[in-house]
Amino acid sequence: MTKQPEISPHPALKLRHTLRGHGSAVYRMALSSDGRILASPSQDRTVRLWNTESGRLVRTLRHGGSLVCVAWSPDGKRFASGGGYDDKQVTLWDAAAGKRIRVLGEHDEIVTGVAWSPDGGRLASCSHDKTIRLWDPAGRRAPRICRGHAASVQGIAWSPGGGQLCSASWDDPLRLWDPKTGESRRTLQGHNSLIHCVAWSPDGRTIASGSDDRTVRLWDAETGRQTMVLEGHTNWVLSVAFLDAGRLLAALGRDGRLLLWRIDDWAQVLRVDGIGESSVFTNLAAHPTLPIMAALGDYYHEIKIWEIDFERLRGAETTAQTTIYVNAKAVLLGDSGVGKSGLGIRIAEKEFRRTSSTHGAQFWHFPTDRLPGLPDGVQAELTLWDLAGQPEYRLTHQLFLDDVDAALLLFDCADPHDPFRGVPYWAKVLKKHAPEHAQRFLVSSRYDVSPVTVDRREIDHFLGLHGLDGHYATSAATGEGVAELFGRLLAAIPWAELPRTSTPKLFQAIRTFLLEEKQRIRAPARRGSGEGDSQPANADSRPAGAKEQLIGANEQSPSVDSQPGDTGSQFTDVRPQSMDVNTQSGEESPRRSPGSLLPMDALRRVLQERFPEGKATQAEIDTVIGLLQSRGLVHRLKSPSGEDQILLRPECINQYGASIIQAARNHPQGIGAVTERDVLIGNIPFSGFARLPAAEERIVLEATVELLLGHDLGFREMGYLVFPSQIHVTRVPSPAIEGKPPPRAEVAYRFSGAIETIYASLVVRLSYAEHFRREDQWRYAVEFSRAGNRLGFSMAQVEEGAGEIEIWFEPNVTEFDRVTFIRFITDHLRTKGIDIQGQIRLYCPNCDEEVKNRAAIERCLADGKLAIPCQFCDTEIVIPAGVEEHCRRKPALGETQRELKDTVERRRNTEISAFRHDRQNYLDNLSPSSVVKNNQYSKKIEKISTSEMDAKLKGLRKMDTELFNKIVAAARTARAQQVYVSSPSKQLFSNDGILKAEYLIVAEYISRADSEELAQLIKSKEPVSYATPELVEKYWLQKLGDIAGKDGVIVKIDLSGIG
């Protein structure tokens, strides 16, 4: 204990004691139930017990390893501790005697939290090993293990009645558990990043959580509904706690910022910056009823005990003026050309304007009139999104609907062949992703000009078939039916149940400025993309109020980075512009949009000028940008120089992403690939949108590639970006080998959703898993191997938005690998798809016929039968055990799945890092000096005929000659056209053999698997690279020239005719 200073950081806080004594960092502390003793675990391998009234050290308990967390039993006689990296044990201690009672057991990794049940009969612990364990404190029973989280579990909290347990994890969702069964009851989705902490209110009605997304979120414990979002933190929220019998909520940030809110009106009543040091395992040890709390002091090994003036805080003025608002999201969905944009303009801007098809998306953001059910002081806002209907965008948008509150599904009522085209797809996607409360309305637009071909009976049948909530006929041109539709839309949104956001005035000011900047670039961007030809010249000619409604409006699409998701798959009519970036001349297309990147330095300067009374810190600016990015309103990027930029039109990412994938789709060999270099320099077709200025475009293209890779939509291979869903090479059925028929499907899965995107990400993830080696791929079919045996799957579309994957194996694939392969696929389908239905395929061992009677197979499975008679020859066919049964019998299968998922994450991160490294190589070759160099190197190339090559090889018997022969053999195996040899010496051949050289094998397409196989064939560490002909001139020639230098030589060998 030391003498405390006189100065307090806030009138409601009084420093009672500063505690020193630990020799290393102090982690997650806990106060006893009577508030008199504080237990502090430390990296110094001790737990210290402190008297909070006197500040004196009561005793020190020594442990064999570092400690991370402690928790007191309800009676205050015992406490439990969780071990760190060198311990991992859950230990029970006698507080009065200062002795270890027992070690209950251990986790596989660091123990991050411990919590006693309210009756003291159970102890819960959580860990980096992704599990929660429920222990019997008496040590009589083995722990119950709760599995379900996919990442480290950081916090746990019991409900006041002990009937439920809530966990916070780095895999984002909170989970509610049944402690009796260990089963997960519900997940709470809403945070946009890792969750660090969780707390239960004393009345059991509310759960609070804190996250890396810098928000505190409140949840209804009974329904799981998110009720409140609290903004104000500028770094990770590490700890949350209810104080004053639930009247106050406290939250501690990674930067030491302490915030307190009053529960009754969610006003922020206390803010202290730098209350103390913090680390990822720092917490706020606050008593639920007594006015006392403990936090780290000025150093990691120092603790401060604070007294809190509850009375002052209950009646305090707000620390920062707070705005409370609720935002609802509605979407316009449908195929391209059905009138979504016209209807959106009519609703939001109260006018009619002809538009071309939307590319990406656009949105309107505006306040609404006061709505019933919302208390005074709560602002209501509506964001109406118009999502592009082209195939390349519909798959992008389908995973950005998880927070939609209402949807309008538009159809062409005049289409005589398929009027509801596209609507069933969106209905399925909304069923999968939209919240339960989101109502979906069928809308026929252009009602005034389109002759109706669908009668009321057909519409009613369609509504019932797809579970839609009503039909409305509208005309954007005349306004007919629009007011009625908009009124119904507002009434359908449960405003009183939507989560409200409490945000400081400064945050709101920054948010408003960025949205106004988006509005400022809206009109020029429109003109650049050819929209708005019929818009009145005078913007003020819009109806009164429309201008105010448009504040913050902008053409927009959800950012790929803001949520887990996918990008487009099918593309049509993408053509180069008449003028494009010319890699030789550097000329640009005149059709460019105005600048859409706002440099961070410029933003800081403007904010300082506009708000001198409340200077915004960088952390506050970063926080607001992050919050806006999580809603898809802006996107943060880095320029090549490392400068932070804010992309005000993040729909550009979707537009450029669609162009990249379209370029891959149009590869002349049908391999679904585009060279990385062409993407990065903008040397691919762009159409349908106004391109960014060249400097901005390059930054956005780089970011887009990273996001495509980060979302498993493609992979990098030998200078290409490959997108599995864009491969169009047709697979030729495998012939029988040695009299044996080709493998047949053993199991199939039907599913709904964005089938092409689901397929693409499955291929990428399996390739990254490395347990199975990808061998070859075709249009919607891929082949892997394991220990030399082949296995694979194919996909077919069975109807719009629904597909079927068939999985096959060669006979020698082991049961373990079969189950591992199937389980990986089914886990992926459950995560990405909906309505998953599995079907085993049974074949008679006698007559080789397939059992076609699906009903009979399902009946046998339901009855638990182990065999079914063949319908052709009555031979008994054994029904194999299901995947889940195999996993239950062999826990190692589950562990393998976790290892594969971890490998996928590591490999993805490695690929993105490698891309960042390689992209500079591509861009370095754009300078005029590089072009001059390439011309010089071209003149240095010595072309050798096959006969000259044979003559030179005769008589040479040294090792380098043997290596060269191996390389030529490998090149022929790869069906290569040329081999380049580059040497720093003019005399490549000598009596001693071929001098030291580097080799480049040139073939139309070499996969990573091919290159690995060729490397094994060569069995040498000598530098051998692989390239396509189109990359030789663009990229590799300079590298070969750099190796050759001024005195060296580059030899180009034509492989045709070499025996």
Automatic annotation (TrEMBL):
Task: Tell me which PANTHER family the record gives.
Answer: F-BOX AND WD REPEAT DOMAIN CONTAINING 7, WD40 REPEAT PROTEIN
- In this chain, the stretch annotated as Disordered covers 521-597
Where are the bilayer-spanning segments?
none
UniProt keyword terms in alphabetical order: Repeat, WD repeat
SMART domains annotated for this entry? RAB, RHO, WD40
Gene3D superfamilies recorded = P-loop containing nucleotide triphosphate hydrolases, YVTN repeat-like/Quinoprotein amine dehydrogenase
In residue terms, where are the WD repeats? 19-60, 104-136, 146-187, 188-229, 230-271
List the CDD domains.
WD40
Stretches assigned to coiled coil: none
Biased composition regions of type Polar residues, renumbered to the chain: 554-572
InterPro entries to which the protein is assigned, alphabetical: P-loop_NTPase (IPR027417), Small_GTPase (IPR001806), WD40/YVTN_repeat-like_dom_sf (IPR015943), WD40_PAC1 (IPR020472), WD40_repeat_CS (IPR019775), WD40_repeat_dom_sf (IPR036322), WD40_rpt (IPR001680)
Q: Which GO terms describe its molecular function?
A: GTP binding; GTPase activity
Q: Which domain of life is it from?
A: Bacteria
- Tell me the Pfam families matching this sequence: Ras, WD40
Which protein is depicted?
A: Small GTP-binding protein domain-containing protein
Question: Which organism does this sequence originate in?
Answer: Candidatus Kentrum sp. TC
Does Ribosomal protein appear among the keywords?
no
UniProt keyword annotation of Repeat present: yes
